[in-house]
Every structure is written in structure tokens, then in C-alpha cells.
Amino acid sequence: MTFEGWLLIAAFVGILLALTKPIGLWLFALYEGRRTVLHPVIGPVERGFYRLAGINAEEDQSWRRYAVHMLIFNAALALLTYVLLRAQAVLPLNPQALAALPEHLSFNTAVAFVTNTNWQSYAGESTMSNLSQMLALTIHNFLSAATGIALAFALFRGFSRRSATGIGNFWADVTRITLYLLLPLSIVYALFLIASGVPQTLAGSVDVNTLEGVRQTLALGPVASQEAIKMLGTNGGGFFNVNSAHPFENPTGLTDFVQMLSIFAIGMGLTYTFGKAVNNTRQGWAILAAMMILFLAGTTIAYWQEAVGNPILHNLGVAGGNMEGKEVRFGIAASALFSVVTTAASCGAVNAMHDSFTALGGMIPLFNMQLGEVVVGGVGAGIYGFLLFAILAVFVAGLMVGRTPEYVGKKIESREVKLAVLAIAVLPLVILGFTALASVLPAGLAGPLNKGPHGFSEILYAFTSAVANNGSAFAGLTASTPFYDGLLGVAMWIGRFFIIIPMLAIAGSLAAKKYTPETAGSFPTTGLLWTGLLVGIVLIVGGLTFLPGLALGPIADHLAMIRGQLF
Predict the structure, then answer these.
(1) Residue 502: which of 396, 424, 404 has the closest Cα?
(2) Are 138 and 221 in contact (CB under 8 A)?
(3) Which of 72, 333, 404, 558 lies 20 to 30 Å from 90, alpha-carbon distance?
(4) Do the Cβ atoms of 256 and 250 come closer than 8 Å?
């Protein structure tokens, strides 16, 4: 570990904390539906969309109606994407004449991008046409991210409203978030990337002479536009197979740093938005503090393990940290930091190959996802996931103080606790169940590149990434098979929507309740004690559930490495 590495991490956290309030205030304006400086330009577009679609943006929807509209919208998008990918060969903007995707891969990809997972069982530059990249994939990067933020707004209204029957309007929320937040930021971001050397063209490829004197064909396409929203929306799907390790997606140290900032920026801003929504910004800062404790702990372990490197190589006289699978232009610190950022958020973009990390260094990205990706998390999904843990935490606190638990002025009763437990239980149930299935069936065992505990880690990582809607992978797993495409597609759908429905039910239940003022007997939910309790609940739930799986995978892999055995 070096001083420069820690300086990079400190600068990253400092800049993000400085951005949290301004981004949170902008999000709060959209949450309330207030007029912004962009309304004179974008307002007519928004109103025109409502008229064209026949939407009454002022309608206040119940949680059930909000959920039904959200599900129909996402199911229609998944079907449209499937059809586009199956018909790719006969559609325009296909300069490389790429074939249509097979049924199992079209299904997997459609579900992956609708659920904000962006799992990729394909190499983008040799599989997807320009039209597929733009129409079938990039559009989802906007709409899946907007859906996540809209769902967070719905839960915020559940906490902030009093004796209400509605939690907002799904169509209005998605439209405003897309037009006033994601689209303007993406345009500015894409221009920055183009200026940094990222391609933005409809050309399919270009032939160049390399320094070795070899003629090489380089794939091109509309990369910058996809890259911008891929990061801002915590989508993660790369235009190229190696994602942000590719110089056309991530050419410099500056673009690498900005990409990491953009993954966390909106998610951290939403914590401040929540505080504003419940009229107590200290609530938002307390949640952010708990997130940052977990993030910095994970970053420290990952950086330490990658900097220490492999003891087997040290015994052979090879000094230094672990540079396998990493880009020299980024190095160990930036690679370790990126791995924690992308898995603490549900992004899945990578600038290094996690399969090549040390055993414990690779365990941290895995464990981040198993915690529910609530350490900042995906845009919207992170904060509403963390609030589910907050409901469990106040329930535990209520048991300690001997009274009905309360959180931000709302009594947390048995209905909310049961729904929160149901939503949180989805993650371990599907991850461990599907991993066990793949670990015993021949079709599942054909996927891992490595044997032993590392091979098990590849399977465990894949299903963890799918259910947590992350999309990153231990690259050693061959997942482009009907078995893995099908099972991972089901896992992604369950991991997204089987958590959303109980969460919206909680929002509807809370919105109908009256405000309960704090008293001397109320458990404080803004101080150090509350922050520690939040961190403890997240770690205990994640740790107790997944510790046996981690023991069979990365922990066993680490112990074997110490004894001189590699897999």
C-alpha cells in the first residue's frame, strides 16, 4: 500500500461528500415536482409526452397501482428488447452484419438490462449491432435507473406523508428523473468522454497499423453515450467485452476517477434527499455514515490484500502486489477501489478482472453484493434497500427500549417488519438455492474454469451478482449456455421485482399512518449509536447468512494459498 493509493481513496471520498448535498437538493426538487432551471427548455417536452401517452401526471397512485404500472412497463420493455435482439440480423445500423442472438441469450440480455443488472454473457463488440447497443440496451440504462430512483421516491413518500392513500405517480416520477436528471448529466458526461478519447460514431470498425507493424481491426461504435449512462445509472453494461478495462471505454486515469465518482454520486445524493423528504437531514447523514463505514472497511481489506499479493510468488522471490488481471495504467489502488465501488453500488462495470484478485481481495466485491448492495447501492435501489434494514434496526431497538419501534415519525408495526424480512430474505434464498443447484448439476459444473474452492466462488459470484442486480462476474465462468442464461435470467428478475413489491407495500402502509412525535422514550435514529446499530444489522444479516458459502469459496481458497496450493 502506498501514500498515493490512500490519497486517491481520500480524494474520492472527499469529492463525493462535497457533491452529496447539491445532488440531493436537485433530486429533492424532482421528488417534489418543483420547477427547476431546466423547465423552460424541457418542460414542453415533458408535457407533450404526457399528452401523447394520455397520462395524468397529477394522479396520486396507491401502492398497488404504482406497482402494477411499474411491472407492466418493465415487462413490455423486456419483450421489446427480446424481439429486437432476435431480429438484429435484418435490422439497420448493423455495419458488421452481426447475426441475431439465440433465444437463451436474448432472454438473458433482455432481463439483465430491464432489471438494471446488465449481466453480459456475450462480447459486445462482436455480438451487438449499433442499433442493438443504442435502442435495445442504452435506452434501458436510462429507464431502469429512472425506475429505481422513482421507487425510492415512492418509499420516501411513505415515510413523509400522513394519513395518505397514495405514494406518487410512477409515470411522472420516471419521466421527470429521465428528462431533468439522467439525460442532461449524460450529455455533459458523454462530451467529456469524447474529449478524453472515447469513440462516438456509427462506424463499425477501423483498420490500423499497430506499433508491431501488424494490421489490426478495431471495433468502434456509439461508445461514449452508452458509457455515460452506464455509470450514472449504475448499469455497468460495457460496449466492449472487457468493460472499463478497455481504453476505448476508459482511456485515462482521469476518466477512471470520474467513472468511479459517477457510480456513487446519485446514490449518495439520495441519502440527503431522504433526509429532506422526512424534514430531518440528520436522518440522511446517519444513513450515509453507516454506508461509508462499510465502504471504507471493504476498500481497506481489498486494497491491503491486492497490495500484499500472493505469498507463493513471494516465496519464489517475486516481490510486489497482485497485478494479474489489472491495467498497468490504473495500478493496484485504483483497481481495488473500483472493484469495491462497482459492487457496493449495483453497477457491475469493471476496470480489472475480479477472478484474478487474491482470494480475500475477491471476497470483498462478493460480500458487498451479498449485503444487498446497500453500501450506497444502485440508484434508488441502494437507499430503499438500506431503509429495509433500517426498519429491522428500529424493530431491534424497540425491543431494547420496550416500546413500539418508531422511525422518522412512523410506528413500525408487525406488517412492516414482516414485509421487510420477506424482501431481505429473497437475496439469500435465491443466491444460495441456485448456487447449490449449479454446483451439483452437470450443466452447472461445466461452467467454472477453475476447480476447487475458486471454481465454487465463480458459481457463487455469478448468482450473487445476478440476484443483487450487479452484473459483474468472476470472468472464469462460462455463462453463455442455455443453463446459465436461463437460470441467471430468472435470478435477475426475482432479485429485482420480488424485493420491490414488498417495499412498495411498506410504502403504502407507512403513508396511511399518522405522524408520531418523538418523546423521551423514543430510540434516537440520528446519532452514533444508531449508525453503529445499522452497520451491525447489515453485517450480521449478511454475515450469518453467507458465511458458510464464503467459507467454502474464498476463505478456503485463501487458506489453501497460504499452504502453497492454487486452483
Answers:
(1) 424
(2) no
(3) 72
(4) yes
Q: What is d(CA 243, CA 347) in angstroms, rounded to the nearest whole number?
A: 12
Residues 373 and 535: their CA atoms lie apart, in Å, by: 13
SS (H, E, C) 401-414: HCCCCEECCEECCH
C-alpha cell at 224: 461514449
User: To 10 degrees, the CA torsion angle through 38, 39, 45, 49?
Assistant: 120
CA 216, CA 302: separation in Å to the nearest integer? Answer: 36
Per-residue pLDDT tens digits for 235-249? 988 899 899 999 999
* Nearby residues of 195 by Cβ (< 8 Å), 6 or more positions away: none
User: Of 517, 521, 523, 426, nearest to 469 (Cα)?
Assistant: 426
- Given a contact cutoff of 8 angstroms between Cβ atoms, the answer to whether 361 and 352 are in contact is no
Q: What is the pTM of this model?
A: 0.94
Question: Cα–Cα distance between 379 and 147 in angstroms, integer?
Answer: 9
Cα 9-381-77 angle, rounded to 5 deg:
125
C-alpha cell at 179: 428528462
Q: 232-263 burial, b for 16+ CB within 10 Å, e for fewer?
A: bbbbbbbbbbbbbbbebbbbeeebbbbbbbbb
Residue 301 to residue 121: CA distance in whole angstroms: 29
> Where does 309-380 have alpha helices with state H?
311-315, 331-344, 359-370
Pick the closest to residue 340 from 376, 312, 309, 307 (CA basis): 376
Query: What is residue 215's three-state secondary structure?
Result: strand
Residue 219 phi/psi, 5-degree rounding, is: -70, 140
152-170: b (≥16 Cβ within 10 Å) or e: bbbbbbbbbbeebebbbbb
> In the structure grid, which three cell numbers stand for residue 170, read together?
410512477
Q: By C-alpha distance, which of 312, 352, 289 is closest to 529? A: 289
- C-beta of residue 198 within 8 angstroms of C-beta of residue 223: yes
Q: State residue 524's pLDDT score.
A: 87
What pLDDT is attached to residue 148?
Answer: 95
Helix axes 253-277, 223-232, angle to 10 degrees: 40
* Amino acid occupying residue 333: A
Going by C-beta distance under 8 Å and a sequence separation of 6 or more, which residues neighbour residue 52?
none
The 8-class DSSP code of residue 257 comes to H
Contact 88, 116 (CB under 8 A): no
The CA distance from 282 to 176, in Å, is 26
pLDDT higher than threshold 80 for residue 388? yes
Q: How big is the chain by its Cα radius of gyration, in Å?
A: 23
CA distances from 141 to 115, 149, 236, 347 (A): 10, 13, 9, 11
**Which cell is 28 given?**
429533492
Burial class of residue 332 (count of CB atoms within 10 Å of its CB; 0-12, 13-18, 19+): buried
Task: Of 8-12, 13-17, 135-139, give the lowest mean pLDDT range.
Answer: 135-139
